[in-house]
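Archive entry: two folds, one per protein. Generate the first.
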Amino acid sequence: MLIAPMRQDLARYGVEETRTPQDVDRVLAEPGTVLMITNSVCGCAAGKARPGIGMALQGAIRPDRTATVFAGADEAAVAHLRGILSDVPPSSPSMALFKDGKPVFIVHRRDVEMRDPFQIASMLTEAFKQHCA
């Protein structure tokens, strides 16, 4: 019950929940671009990351798909995604833009903490223009 509203914050933007490793693999196996979000209960996720993601997803250029795992809730899915991103230190919240199954752009928690939602949206929008257009 605690995290349901936090899941809904992203679902209202059309972000698909991936709660198992198989869900993560299914989404990342599709051709094209995928923004994979590691959601969390922390304040920077609520006040910065989720609003910034929502703004970026309103733009004309965006990934073919967006999906999320929830740190502390979807433990196996999060561990699997972190295994795929083994060169990136674990982070929540975080975002990884994949193109044809390969990561091409990463936003780490430290990148979120130092920005406001508008700056996060701008950073994502630029990544979408570069990798999704």
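Generate the second and append.
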Amino acid sequence: MINCIIVDDEEHAIEVIQHYLKSVTAIQIAATFINPIDALSFLNSNPADLIFLDIHMPEISGIEFIQTMKNRDVQVILTTAYKEFATEGFDLDVVDYLVKPIPLPRFLQAINKAQKIINAKKANIPANQQHDDYFMVKTEAKGKMLKINIAEIDFVEGMKNYIAFHHNGIRTLALLTMKDVEERLPKAKFIRVQKSFIVALDKITSIDGNRIILKGVSAEILIGETYRKDFLDMMKQKLLL
């Protein structure tokens, strides 16, 4: 799966790309941003494979955005109402340059090009660094391994020498470290909220002060001070004002 973000200071432009992406099952939208500064902050702590990036924005231009990015492995498709910046964009090695209003066939052509580049890069990543739909863990029972479906994980709990996966209504202990698990789980779907807890973002139903409430989970999970800012910044990106 390819994770993307959309950065454009016009809501309508974002909505057009969101609509087009509904027909592209291999790409999921991790976040959208009207403010490019917020997008840069998001990229500093969250992985993305592809950015749909407007050029003309009030805070910084799309060109300046690319020059500011720390992670240059992210592929960029520029979107703009102006043709004259195409050369400058391609000098920065962008995937493609789409002129608004963007026709769907032209959009899909750019997507196809981006997928080929991204998939080729991912093919060179060691298997133990890729994010799959599941992984196998050695349990506390000698010689026994158990399959953990990533989509079923509610939260992960550190327990001294073990890690407890809380998933699908059960708890599975594995001889792992929090660092091992944090590196393996997709960062677009999980976030560490304190030293001993990683939670699934799509299982969060509410935040009550310092408490995180997860769907169907009675355990109380508190936000650690060290992780509070990153967690709340991510939640604010989804806040409807």
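Annotation attached to the second fold: The CA atoms of residues 1 and 26 lie 5 Å apart. Helices lie at 11-21, 36-45, 62-68, 86-91, 104-123, 178-184, 225-236.
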